Amino acid sequence: SLPTIYFITPTYPRREQAAELTRLGQTLMHVPNLHWIVADDNQACNDMVTKLLKKFGIPFTHIASPMPEIYRKAETIPRGVANRRAALNWIRKNVKSGVFYFGDDDNTFDLELFDEIRDTKKVSMFPVGLIGDYAVSSPVLKEGKIIGFFDSWPSKRKFPVDMAGFAVNIELLLSHPNASMPYKAGYEEDQFLRSLGVTIGDIEPKGKSCTQILVWHTQTTKKPVPVLKFRTRPDNSLREL
Ligand code: UDP
Ligand code: MN
């Protein structure tokens, strides 16, 4: 039978959230044997989010895991780390086999991606579009094997890859009980993969030998919540605030 894909989505409250989750949920509706782990950067599970998730009819788990306050004040904030960590812990407690993947709520996924990553034996990697100045981040292959990486910001990383650029077999996670993601912006992927004991020879190229982009690091323009000057009365007249 098909291995289950555990799709881990960190999410947080802001005015774009419902739109992002609707678009993503309606992509995931097309994917068989998928379990959606929605990890809410929030004190408690947001009721609006739970209600939205029920609409899609796909199996999901909604967990709350707020970012510790100290990291919110950091110069570069490690976005989505506390909640991804909570999702990994949920997998450790509840799952024995399958594949997991980190799918942010604002990214764009080709349905072919799921066919590609589903049979990941240890760790698979593939190109991600719209990353950095070069607009693509990808493993580099020679004779079918990954020998290096192309990325706009190598920064001495062993694995200069984006969060959306790899999938992991759950048995590998279970065999590394101390594997974890650091609260260190820019180095989350590299240190997480190192903590799983990954070597470059282990990595399975996907996306038709890394020739295809099946996921894009899209970003939604954020409009800050404005300071409202008026409020509408029930009779539609305006009241100054
Ligand atoms: N995120 C979060 N808490 C935050 C900011 C972001 O959980 O305070 C989530 C967000 O919903 C997304 C992921 O972490 O799924 C990456 O954040 P974002 O898309 O803002 O980062 P970028 O892709 O721009 O680097
Ligand atoms: Mn993003």
Automatic annotation (TrEMBL):
Subcellular location as annotated: Golgi apparatus membrane
Cellular component terms per the entry's GO annotation: Golgi membrane
MF annotations from Gene Ontology: galactosylgalactosylxylosylprotein 3-beta-glucuronosyltransferase activity; metal ion binding
Reaction(s) this enzyme catalyzes, per UniProt: 3-O-(beta-D-galactosyl-(1->3)-beta-D-galactosyl-(1->4)-beta-D-xylosyl)-L-seryl-[protein] + UDP-alpha-D-glucuronate = 3-O-(beta-D-GlcA-(1->3)-beta-D-Gal-(1->3)-beta-D-Gal-(1->4)-beta-D-Xyl)-L-seryl-[protein] + UDP + H(+)
Pathway given in the UniProt record: Protein modification; protein glycosylation
GO biological process, one term: carbohydrate metabolic process
Alphabetized UniProt keyword annotations: Glycoprotein, Golgi apparatus, Manganese, Membrane, Metal-binding, Signal, Signal-anchor, Transferase, Transmembrane, Transmembrane helix
Membrane topology recorded in Swiss-Prot or TrEMBL: Single-pass type II membrane protein
Cofactors named for this entry: Mn(2+)
Catalytic residues, chain numbering: E189 (proton donor/acceptor)
Residues at which Mn(2+) binds: D106
Official protein name in the record: Galactosylgalactosylxylosylprotein 3-beta-glucuronosyltransferase
Natural source organism: Gryllus longicercus
